[in-house]
Structure formats: structure tokens, C-alpha cells
């Protein structure tokens, strides 16, 4: 499965990561799997402020990700 990350998560996970995980899985399971592989990203991945998107839709953590799906993780952005 491909995971695209933005913001602070891209610094921790890389902008695009191929993840070896059994699918279908939930977004929550994907987050836990990524946290196990990238311990420095565990805290941001657990944040409710980090949104998961599939296609053009923000999805809840309970969303089931099908094989071949690209999941995008959007870290919160601050600015002025």
C-alpha cells in the first residue's frame, strides 16, 4: 500500500512510503503499523489532528482501506 505524507509527517515517514501490511485494514491499523515501523512518528500518527484521506475524501480511522488504495496523511499546518 502506498502512503503519502505531508508536513511534519513527511519529514518522519518520507513523502511517499510503500507499506507492507495485510489489506483490507482500517486507517487506525495502518497508523499503528506505521508507528511500529517509525517510532519517532508514533506521537504525530496518534494525533486526532492528523487527517487521513482516500481519494478526495477525508476518512475516519474506522475506514477500511482496500488493496491498491493510496492513503494520504495530512499533518496540521500552522502559519501566519
What structural class is derived from the secondary structure elements? Answer: alpha+beta
Q: How many structurally independent domains? A: 1
Average pLDDT number: 92
Cα-based radius of gyration, to the nearest Å: 12 Å
Query: What is the ordering of alpha helices and beta strands?
Result: EHEEHHEEEE
Give the % helix.
25-40%
**CATH class category:** Alpha Beta
Low-confidence residue ranges: none
Strand order of the largest sheet: 2-1-7-4-5
CATH 4th-level superfamily: Beta-grasp domain
How many extended strands? 7
CATH topology heading: Ubiquitin-like (UB roll)
What is the beta-strand fraction? Answer: 25-35%
N-C termini distance: 35 Å
Number of helices: 3
Identify the CATH architecture: Roll
Q: In this structure, how is the largest beta sheet organized?
A: 5 strands, mixed
Give a verbal description of the structure:
The protein is α+β, with helices and mostly antiparallel strands and 80 residues long. It has one domain: Ubiquitin-like (UB roll). It is 28% helix and 30% strand. The chain has helices at 8-13, 27-37, 42-46; strands at residues 2-6, 16-18, 25-26, 51-54, 57-59, 64-65, 70-74. The strands form two sheets. A five-stranded mixed beta sheet has the order 2-1-7-4-5. A hairpin with a 2-residue loop joins strand 4 and strand 5. The protein is globular and about 25 Å long. 20% of the residues are buried.
Descriptive terms for the model:
80 residues, alpha+beta, Ubiquitin-like (UB roll), 5-stranded mixed sheet, two-stranded antiparallel sheet, 3 helices, 7 strands, globular
